Predict the structure.
Amino acid sequence: KKTAAIIGAGIAGIASAIRLANKGYDVHVFEANSYPGGKLSSFDVKGYRFDAGPSLFTLPHLVEELFEISGKNPKAYFDYIRLDEACRYFWDDGVRLTAHANQRAFAQEIEEKLSEPSVHVLAHLKDSAVKYNVTEKLFLHRSLHKISTYFNRDAFKGYANMHRLDAFTTMNSANERRFQNPRVVQLFNRYATYNGSDPYQTPATMNIIPHLEYNIGAFFPKKGMVSITESLVKLAEELGVKFYYNTKVEKIETSGNRVTKLIFDANTSAPDTYDIVVSNMDVVNTFRKLLPEAKQPERILRQPKSSSALIFYWGVKKSFAELGLHNIFFSNDYRAEFEHLFQQKTLYSDPTVYINITSKHKPDDAPKGGENWFILVNAPNNEGQDWEALIAQSRQDVLRKVSHNLGVNIADFIECEEILDPRSIESKTSSSQGALYGNSSNNRFAAFLRHANFSREFKNLYFVGGSVHPGGGIPLAILSAKIATDLVDS
Ligand code: FAD
């Protein structure tokens, strides 16, 4: 039987393991942490459960597909609901609106609360769908680095519609052109943050993102985000995949055009030679740390990284009827916020605050009468800033803003607190500079400046995960596993 080693049990590593097991490989997964999932994991404090990283779940069929190709019924492992509302929005002057999943209701709500004609919103969502359909086949399902990608029917259809992608304007300019009310512009500009980009720089092509929430839908796994990881690990184990935890790969040895051997930090009884190796470690660190003697694809490795995040996990001993699963408290100056994040590389004093509360749908995530708040503010990537000072200041800024909007002193209700910042994101998952999504998409060539899912130098080495093609976020990380493993033995 052929053998495969996977470096990292992030979602893309697990998905790759499942796909390779289905191809008949004997698969071993090496994970530095004591738990699987990388960013997609969870923890408990004082009766509160928190999903550590991702909170928004889109394109669930990509998870289900992994069960289906394994001949299993996804529902027996993993279940989720479709959300009626995508998000609740709050502005400091008291304006609030609910982004209903239903397009007409959402457009109506925007017209009522912000006097923006509903036809503008509907046209935007329609355009988002067109963009998505052009991009999906061309960019998301195939390797951009194989010539065959460019010579097939889907690709030619894509080229014919290329102009519809709006790659030569920024997201903000396109949205300012479409909408009258700056708050509607702000609401739709926020989608740039779904891949860690800056709406004032990223091309308007990224206006494909609302399509995911309003046309296809936003979802919530009934047992929390971590159940995506847990159910897929269970499936992988049933397929015979072996997981080695607390086992960090320190180096990959090579000879000629092949990788030959893994060097581990721990005493492990695992074999160290494999027919193929798949790295789910951030591609920058795979080259810099595991393959320091190999040719370094500098242009790609030096691309600017996506934003990072500062997260406060608060156990709150009070419930707030006005809050839902996803809530946004907008900055009064969005442009200044992004200028701070991407140019000054610091936090802004009036940040946009995102609060995710899974206990709204999964009551056992918090003690009775309480709520588990996951509070995220966008942060620059780690360049050695004085994070202790920035975190202390940001905590005050967040408390002030949220207390103002909810009319109570939130600090009085915080029972326990944990913090994740760009440094700990970097150290816990080996992400270069703590970026959430690998490279940023702040220029129109970004899609072509992500590393391919295979190595040009070593014939039996592949790359998966949020730092390589097609991009960051759970759906794209899962797709990277499909693209990479489709290339194996092809
Ligand atoms: P990662 O999760 O980065 O995991 C890599 C794994 O490899 C880690 O477990 C690490 O320990 C292991 N590893 C690395 N090097 C080695 C080594 N040398 N030896 C052994 N093991 C190693 N996405 C969404 O879709 N929706 C969201 O709402 C969302 N929100 C986010 C919020 C936060 C705070 C964060 C941090 C991320 C968010 N994302 C979101 C992004 C999403 O989490 C990631 O894109 C995705 O989980 C990346 O998966 P991955 O497979 O690349 O691996």
Notes: The domain at 1-75+83-100+221-490 is CATH 3.50.50.60 (FAD/NAD(P)-binding domain). Residues 304 and 439 are 6 Å apart (CA to CA). The radius of gyration is 22 Å.
